[in-house]
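Long-time lurker. I teach an intro course on protein structure, and each term I like to show students one example going from raw sequence to a predicted 3D structure in token notation. This year I'd like something fresh instead of my usual example. Would anyone be willing to generate the tokens for the chain below so I can use it in lecture? Attribution to the forum is fine with me.
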Amino acid sequence: MEFSVRGDGTLLLRNRWAIIQVSISTSSWYTARMIITYHGGQFIKITQGDTVIAANPFGKGSQYKPIRFGARLGLISVNHPDFNGAENLAHGEKTPFVISGPGEYEVGGISVSGTLAPKGFGKDELLNTIYAVEMEGVRLCMLGALSSVDLTSEQIEGIGEVDILFVPVSGEGILSPADAGKIAVSLDAKIIIPIGWADPADKQLALFLKEAGDEGIAPVEKLTLKKKDLEGKEGQVVLLEPLSHA
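-- Reply from a regular --
Happy to contribute to a lecture. Here you go:
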């Protein structure tokens, strides 16, 4: 007997007498694993199959060295060189759809909800957008340059239920380690990924990990998962090594 899978997730079984159609769930059987990498600052790359999402890539004038690769979707939380390098997400024939502010968006089956943070970033009070991204049933939240835990009920509703939370734990003008822990608890994320650090010896990172009860956790190069891998997880901290390459 031979088999093949159509684009709509239908399994075709063939033998010498008949073709049998069986509808299956593409999310559990056919969907590629999600791969998450961290590139320093607030820069996150999410890959699933041929789809690449990049959040807060480094731009011209950033304190970080820009990294270039092709992305399907770019998310910009703050109009600042450390966050707004959308030009570095175009490569070859790939040109990203760029989202740089609050609103509801649908891009190639990916849902994005942008919510304005309660306070601006830095001395110029630059607007900061919190993004909730849902793809293949997994909801990810990027807090951007969040500096206050005082989220309104409307803002929390906009973020929704969070599977994977990227929370800034180090850097000028953002959450303190204690506040980062509070926001992580309040959003009830299944997996928490601290960002904004460059050195495992970073004191702010160490304080956050102490607050979370995860002192001594070793960084890993990437997080690879499917939706089913989230079952039973409650506030698990994953430390991703900052990568200087795509």
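Some talking points for your students: The two ends are 42 Å apart (CA to CA). The longest strand covers residues 110-116.
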